Amino acid sequence: MKRLKFEKLWLLSTQERRARTESFDPDVTSIVADNEFGKSSLVKSLYSALGADPYKTPEAWKNAKVALLLRFTVGGATYYILRQEGYFALFDDAKKLLWTASSVVAGLAPKIGELLDFHISLKQKGGKSITPPPAFCFLPFYVDQDNGWSDTWASFSGLGMVPAYKSEIAEFHTGIKPRQYYIAKSKRDEAITSRKLLSDEKGALLKAKKRFSDKRKKLGIALDVEVFKDRIQALLKEQNALQSLYDDLRAKVSDLQSLRSIAQEEVDIAERVLSELNSDIKFATDFSDDEIVCPVCSTVHDNDFANRFGLINDADACRIVLIEARAKVAKHDGDIEKVLRSVPSLEKRISSIKAILQETRGEVKLADMLKDESERLVDKSFEDEERVLDGEIGILNVTASDAKAEMDSLTKASRKKKIVEFYDAKLREFCGLLNITNIPSSVWGKVRPVISETGSLNPRLLLAYYYAVLHTIDEFSTSCFCPIVVDTPLQQDQDPENSKRLIRFAIENKPVGSQLILATGSLNRIVPPGRLIEPDSKRSLLSEDKYEDVYDFMLPFLNASLIG
Predict the structure, then answer these.
(1) Same-domain pairing of 125 and 274
(2) 541 shares a domain with 474
(3) pLDDT tens digits, residue range 504-533?
(4) d(Cα 401, Cα 191) in Å, to the nearest integer?
């Protein structure tokens, strides 16, 4: 089983120019402070960095637009994950960018699922199957102070996107339905979906086949090549000759059209230049002054007979070019027309083909026989395609059946019974440690019971239940075991003894090798192992004096994520 552990968290608000950084012990980290000192905001940020937002986030924290950078390990490998609003970027230990995601459901969920072996497919509203967002992966490991002490499996926001998710998620995490079950389920679902598409395609094919069959007139006579052998050879000869003639005509006309286009372009240019020269001659003739000043460059030109004579000579030369160009166009038009006169020979060839097709041997025309043969070829194409589709559908049937068999083998009653019995034993043990004597019968025999006790009993029963589930996960789950984050367990005015029991229990009864991050208003004189964090600024978890250092450290990550 993989284990996820938090190492260090950087928090940066460029909006407020404040920041903070905290390290976490691999065993136990206690965050102790009174209300409004930011301990909950600190622990909420841990799983939030991985895309799992808490059930409730303070408005002031939202407004601060805090960027999060979390260093963590999975299976011994170190990673950094950066979160800016809804944008995520993962880096390796060398701070090399591995991937980015701008959508929690479509982008982040599959990547986190792959990283943490969270292989499960759930149906969201509307029926579409998805890899659920990271919040569903972290549900058993986080108890939020706002909702975790009144409802189970409900400490994150956005969970309503998957209807009735609790039982399915509880069975996945406790191993009743291991990840291999969901991998097989995904294969089965994909096979069923693909089979449905192929079945629809086959239905359309059969409908087209019937429409084609209904409209045709069947002769029922197979093509006898020997009967029409000489005529078929003549037909092929005429077709080849017709194709050759057509290709020659097309090539000649194409060449002539290109030459005509060039000549026509010469005509257009000559006409335009001649028009301009005539305008210049008229202007120079009508202009009475001896000098003409260019309106563009202010150059002075003599308006004498020599200049006007030069313009007239240019105009005469241009007329010659124009006449020659028009002659070329006329010639090319004639050449094209001459080539197209060959069309009657095409018609002669076509008539020859028609005569061959209409020739009768016995009571059968060659055209009818060829038509009937072509329709039989179409029938064969329909049959071949139908056979291919049947083969693919058959393969998908086997895939779906094998996947279903694997799913059944992974959910045997004996396996579930073993897991539930382990869970019941742990729950009974933990209820005793938390001074719960009257255990409601509704909590036994199912890993996702409804717990709705009143008063101080409810938080103790919930903590016993959460830890029983965590031990069951540690024993049977095939997914990643994540850090246990417990926010403010001292709920409902616990008496001093029960308060001590809650704190001691949370620290001493976590699964071996797991990481605990405990936020509380008081440790009740219990001295926990590991690291102690004591926020000391009311309503201000972040501080100005940390801003520059945190900003400098996070800046390369911020820049790299934008480039990626």
Answers:
(1) no
(2) yes
(3) 999 999 999 999 999 999 998 899 999 999
(4) 9
